[in-house]
Design brief:
This protein is an alpha/beta fold and 586 residues long. It is built from 18 helices and twelve strands. The strands form three sheets. An eight-stranded mixed sheet has the order 3-2-4-5-1-6-7-10, with helices on both faces. A two-stranded antiparallel sheet has the order 8-9. It has a two-stranded antiparallel ribbon with strand order 11-12. Helix 8 (233-244) links the parallel strand 6 (220-226) and strand 7 (249-254). Helix 1 packs antiparallel against helix 18 (561-583). The longest helix is centred in the first third of the chain and has 57 residues, at 3-59. The chain is rod-shaped. The protein starts with a helix and ends with a helix.
Length: 586
């Protein structure tokens, strides 16, 4: 088969297979949409669950529990958000390679200066068009070179910087004499997408990692080694990685050409481009093959033996219409291999690659969701254990509160007693005593809650303790009756001769009388503190049976309930999503 027949057959095959690849991709795209929708459904259910619980809490008008719910759920939401971010990254990872799965993707991989970009320009028909030769390349409407560089994609009509303009002229792969290429560059040739990747050991780590990332998503890797220095330890290490990834590899020894001196018609010495000798080619191929065998990688050569090629010879052959030189370049064999793979194996590969990628993506998401579910379950178990421990200690907590409150009551009563003793007319009302006890009880409950790790500092409601019937606190007095006897004198008539004589002279005579009456005397018996204290104890007994115990139930049971409910909803949602995703595997 002649040079142009070989080239045209390659191009025509790519055009024929294009429709078949696009049809297969439609099925894959539908599956991707299903996966995305499932993840959106999970996100919707998560938000719905959060909103539902908040609405239920709002109905109770319990702002304190709302605060507890929001504060306690922060860590949980953070874990959930992190899982969602990972999922989003996994989904974003599909976007770049999604379009390329409509094509048979070939990545040219290898060291810097292995001639990858030059080879790409040849395969995309650049030499044929430059030579003005009519060919099947003319049937391809768009042979634009696209560029992808660390998350940024641009084309000729979208360039903005000098670097971009230098690296993307829209018609051929950019060749840098120092690095060969600093970006992913590709062109669609009918059903084939040809990638030109940054080289191994490129001047930046980012470029090298970028190449490795997209090799993972290729259907075929053309591993190019410069025939002048082929078979370095680094190259075999990279081939081993590709081998372990089960990537189909076509191993090329490139730039297999040299210049010989010759004499022209004027007897001037000139340099003639010629292929390397058969012996040199054979020696290099044998060395590479023997090393692959030694390292257990002989099966990497699935499609062909090691192929020694010269893109420069092929370019010159096309330019000069030199069939012999084209044959010596071995580029015709490369065209034939690519044509054969596309016709015979590409459909199977195209089914397997996106299928595997989708399955890997689903498995990765399932793993992330399973891990998150396990963490939530573990958290639920810990919460349930903490809640049960708290329930078991509720009685102890109430006794702690009672004991501390008794001391607090004595302190309040003692302080009030001292005030009354200093001012005996002072009276402390029942409501004043009740208010002080209310404050003391709140402080005591707060202290016990903090000791139990119930962070209620900003969430403790006013218990509104109002003690009634305990009486006023004042000085207590007692009244004792006694008989009071008094003596009084009253005027009387004179008696006897002597008194009558004295009466004549105006003298008056008196007699004494005794008078008895019952009187009372008041004694201060001290402040009525014992009586008030006894009344308070009786009132608090009823209070603990109702208000305080119910509040402790609220803490030990209700404290965790909204979080538990959210976790149950989320775990169920995750489990359903996992189940649905597993059914989506291809």
């Amino acid at each position: 088969m002649g040079m142009m027949e070989t080239i045209n057959k390659f191009v025509d095959t790519m055009l024929e297979e294009q429709q078949g690849f696009e049809t297969m991709q439609n099925e894959v795209s539908k599956k991707e949409e299903d996966v995305l929708q499932e993840l959106k459904n999970l996100e919707h259910k998560e938000k719905e669950g959060i909103t539902q619980i908040k609405l239920e809490l709002e109905k109770t008008n319990d702002k304190d529990m709302m605060d507890i719910y929001e504060k306690t759920s922060d860590e949980f939401f953070e874990a959930l958000g992190e899982a969602n971010r990972k999922i989003e990254e996994a989904v974003k990872g599909m976007t770049f390679i999604q379009d390329f799965e409509k094509h048979f993707t070939v990545s040219v991989f290898g060291k810097v200066k292995a001639g990858k970009s030059y080879l790409g320009n040849l395969i995309m028909g650049h030499s044929v068009r430059k030579a003005g030769i009519e060919s099947s390349y003319d049937k391809i409407k768009d042979l634009t070179v696209h560029v992808y560089d660390r998350g940024k994609m641009y084309e000729l009509n979208k360039l903005s910087t000098a670097v971009e303009q230098k690296e993307c002229n829209g018609t051929e792969f950019y060749v840098d004499p120092n690095e060969a290429t600093s970006t992913i560059q590709w062109v669609n040739i009918g059903g084939m997408c040809w990638f030109d990747t940054p080289g191994i050991g490129s001047v930046t780590i980012e470029n090298e990692e970028l190449a490795k990332e997209y090799v993972k998503n290729s259907d075929l890797v053309i591993f190019a080694c410069n025939s002048d220095a082929a078979g370095t330890r680094q190259e075999f290490s990279e081939i081993k990685q590709l081998h372990d990834m089960d990537k189909p590899i076509l191993l090329l020894l490139t730039q297999s050409d040299t210049y010989d001196d010759d004499v022209d018609e004027d007897d001037e010495i000139i340099s003639i481009l010629v292929p390397k000798s058969e012996k040199d080619r054979k020696d290099q191929e044998d060395y590479m093959l023997e090393t692959l065998r030694e390292q257990g990688m002989e099966d990497v050569l699935k499609y062909a033996d090691i192929l020694t090629v010269s893109a420069l010879l092929a370019t010159e052959a096309i330019k000069n219409n030199d069939e012999h030189m084209f044959e010596q370049s071995n580029i015709g064999k490369l065209y034939d291999i690519l044509t054969s793979i596309t016709q015979n194996d590409a459909a199977e590969i195209k089914k397997a690659t996106p299928k595997n990628r989708i399955n890997e993506m689903i498995d990765s998401i399932v793993l992330d969701l399973t891990t998150l579910s396990e963490e939530i379950e573990k958290s639920c178990s810990a919460i349930e254990k903490n809640k049960q421990n708290l329930l078991d200690r509720k009685g102890w907590m109430i006794e702690q509160i009672k004991g501390s409150l008794n001391i607090g009551v004595l302190r309040i009563i003692g302080k009030a007693k001292a005030e009354i003793e200093q001012n005996k007319g002072k009276v402390i009302s029942e409501s004043e005593i009740s208010e002080e006890i209310n404050i003391a009880l709140s402080e005591i409950i707060q202290k016990v809650c903090q000791e139990e790790s119930l962070n209620q500092k900003n969430a403790l409601p006013d218990l509104n303790i109002r003690l009634s019937g305990i009486g006023e606190m004042k000085m207590r007095q007692d009244r004792i009756p006694y008989e009071h006897i008094s003596v009084i004198q009253t005027q009387r008539d004179p008696q006897g001769i002597i008194e009558h004589i004295g009466g004549l002279f105006g003298k008056k005579y008196y007699t004494s009388e005794q008078k008895s009456e019952i009187r009372n005397i008041d004694y201060d018996l001290g402040v009525n503190d014992n009586e008030i204290a006894q009344n308070i104890v009786l009132e608090l007994s009823n209070l603990f049976e109702n208000t305080v115990e119910k509040y402790m139930d609220f803490l030990t049971k209700g404290y965790y309930e909204p979080i538990e409910k959210l976790q149950r909803i989320t775990v169920n949602g995750i489990e359903n999503t996992i189940s649905n995703l597993k059914e989506m595997r291809m």
